[in-house]
Design goal:
123 residues; 0% strand; DUF4890 domain-containing protein; signal
Amino acid sequence: MKKLIPLIACMFLLSGMSLRAQTKMTDEQRQETLAKFEEFKTKLNLTDEQETKVKSINSEFFNGLSTLKSSGESKMAKYKKFSALRSKRDAQMKETLNDDQYKEYKKFQSEMKENVREKRKQK
């Protein structure tokens, strides 16, 4: 679960929301993440309606993560709930985005995971 926290924080900021009180990101990291969100929006060529829906989907996802993070459940129980939250978000994104946008979204997620792994290796 500890390995997922940086990815989760990054994805939350990609939704355009602020996690300032819940994360320990520096201003530089925050700016980098916001720049990635702008890149994400540009790559997907989101309409205003889609952008609103994506922000809502991600907000719901990260509210669930916040609740999950503060729960006293076991790591396995948290992981199962995390997986369910992620699956729900992906299904909602698939409904919101067209096929090409969804493929690009999944590709972007994979790139973000790889970036997090690389940063973790550098520490």
